[in-house]
Amino acid sequence: MTTESAQSLPFETEVQELLDLMIHSLYSHPEIFLRELISNASDACDKLRFETLTDAALLGGDELGITLEVDADARTLTVADNGVGMTREELVKNLGTIAGSGTRRFLSELKERGADERPELIGQFGVGFYASFMVADRVVVESRRAGEDLGHRWASSADGTYTVEEADGVARGTRITLHLKDAGEDGDDFAAEHVLRGLVKRYSDFVEYPIRLGDDTLNSMKPVWARPKSEVTDEEYADFYKHLTHDFRDPLETIHFKAEGATEYTALLYLPAERPFDLFREREPRSRISLYVKRVLITNECAELLPTWLRFAQGVVEASDLPLNVSREILQANPHLRAIKKRLTKKVLSSLESILADDRERYAGFWDAFGSVLKEGICLGEDDDARISKLCLFASSRGEDRTTLAEYVERMSADQKAIYAITGPDRATLDASPHVAAYVKRGFEVLYLVDPIDEWMLDQLREWDGKPLRAIHAVDDELLSDSEKERVAAAAEEHAALVTALKEHFGDAIADVRFSGRLADAPAMLATTDGALRPHMERAFAESQGMAPPSQRVLELNPDHALVARLADLAGAGGDAFADRADLLYGQALLAEGSPVPDPARFSKLIVDLLGKA
Ligand code: ADP
Ligand code: MG
């Protein structure tokens, strides 16, 4: 029998504020209340376990654990533990006031935010016990402190007050009974066993104490990451990866380590073998790293643990030096997380380095899936010490195999001053490019940059290993020998009339006409003026913003090509024959760089006419 009538006490103002927030929040994941209650129960077991170190009698032979009970008719859910429990004073202090500065800070932050942002913040930070009021309109807590005979009952409907009274027959530990609100149209029913099983598996699987429902233990209690590396089999690593990611394939690589010292944490990261279908569909890059603090899941998407350009890595980091109720801003500013991020970044990059060194084929698979994500890091200017660029694979004029920059540089001859690269839509187009032929003729290898992001990367990656990286689309006479320069000058003099006639014919469509010593077999090609957009980049813009004419190019003529001499003769005669040939020459030069011809109908007619004459 109760020896004292229930005393009604007011909540501290801030608590009521928090409760109102919980009750009226439109947060889309109210289910996190269970994670909070289970984590508190687990803490209570931890505390008792700690106290029994000095007072073994406290435990009384019980196995520590957590029990869920549902009464579907009464619509109640009970979360009970046989942990340390609370005295009357502790009930009042812990459940009626806000003790933790973390919660207080969280609250003041919430007030600063707009109403729209609040619900999502709640889910990210966790607000502990009070989250119960998102799903329950009345909460009853019965608790008996370990070592005490008397238990107490705390109860509240979140209406500004709560009651506390003595209670008989309370077992050691804490029993929290939620009088559930109606599930609503599409909300989860927390009185349904299958819902509870799913939630425990999802959020609390790795809690160290058994979480029971009826005769079943719902959680596996075995965090793979917390076990020594030597005791985890490849299969267990792979199973956990699949559980975590819902990927059905094995991971490409597993990175598992424990850091000790100033910042203590355990990390278990995976590199997927293939690109998840949603990786590039997101409007914003999303982290796939879960952050646990002392076995409790804080967030599934901790953006503070890896740079966005490593967002393909998935896994878990468990830290011990962080508070449970942490806000995103607090996470961002946290020096521990910064230290962890630095180390994890290094670890992922160095494991990629070893795969590249040890197993080229495996690495190529990774590169196909995630190379363009990695290159975002170069675009962001985060390629310190070439840590990213040394991991890049590029196609080149050399042949089928892709090359690293280091391998390219290794093959450079002593007289090659720069790393040559060309951007374009695909290997086949670049293989046929007269620009490439010009360099290959001289014995130089040209990197083929065929990934859309390469255009942006080129603007950041100006040099590598002390050698300038040069895109070869632009006018460039540096390559020419003195005799070649003389040859060009002689042709320019001999065919001055042709150059003038072409300039007149094309008018504003091109920037200039000149003879060039670079061309190999092609009669002509188009070069960009200094500082102009590269053709491939220009096409990307044109596609995204509607068709735009190509910017003015320089038409470079091959002094040694028979066609040029023919054209010179026609220029002298004037008339349609010259205009037609000039347009054909320009059209094929555009096609060769992968650009469309301005008037396809006329171009194809010119070709047909030409075929008829042949
Ligand atoms: P936090 O867990 O971050 O401290 P909570 O709001 O979740 O914040 O809980 C407030 C306090 O209430 C806890 O610190 C703990 O002292 C007490 N408490 C909550 N649940 C239990 C429980 N099941 N057993 C013992 N103490 C509890
Ligand atoms: Mg808590």
Topology:
Blueprint: E1 7-10, H1 13-24, H2 32-51, E2 66-71, E3 76-81, H3 88-96, H4 101-112, H5 118-125, E4 136-144, E5 151-156, E6 161-167, E7 173-180, H6 193-204, E8 211-213, E9 216-217, H7 234-245, E10 253-259, E11 265-271, E12 289-293, E13 296-299, E14 314-319, H8 328-333, H9 335-358, H10 360-379, E15 394-396, E16 399-403, H11 405-411, E17 419-423, H12 427-431, H13 434-441, E18 446-449, H14 454-460, E19 463-464, E20 467-471, H15 482-494, H16 496-506, E21 512-515, E22 524-528, H17 535-544, E23 553-557, H18 562-573, H19 576-592, H20 600-613
Parallel strand pairs: 2-8, 12-14, 17-18, 17-20, 21-23
Antiparallel strand pairs: 1-6, 2-3, 3-7, 4-5, 4-7, 5-6, 8-9, 10-11, 11-14, 12-13, 15-16, 15-18, 19-20, 22-23
Helix pairs in contact: 2-6, 9-10, 10-14, 16-18, 18-19
Structure in a nutshell:
This protein is of the alpha+beta class and about 625 residues long.
Structure notes:
By secondary structure, this protein is an alpha+beta fold. The protein has four domains: 213 residues, Heat Shock Protein 90 (2-Layer Sandwich); 151 residues, Ribosomal Protein S5, domain 2; 80 residues, Rossmann fold, CATH 3.40.50.11260; 132 residues, Four Helix Bundle (Hemerythrin (Met), subunit A) (Up-down Bundle). It is built from 20 helices and 23 strands. The strands form four sheets. A nine-stranded mixed β-sheet has the order 1-6-5-4-7-3-2-8-9. A six-stranded mixed β-sheet has the order 16-15-18-17-20-19, sandwiched between helices. The chain has a five-stranded mixed β-sheet with strand order 10-11-14-12-13, with helices on both faces. The mean pLDDT is 87. Bound molecules: adenosine-5'-diphosphate and magnesium ion.
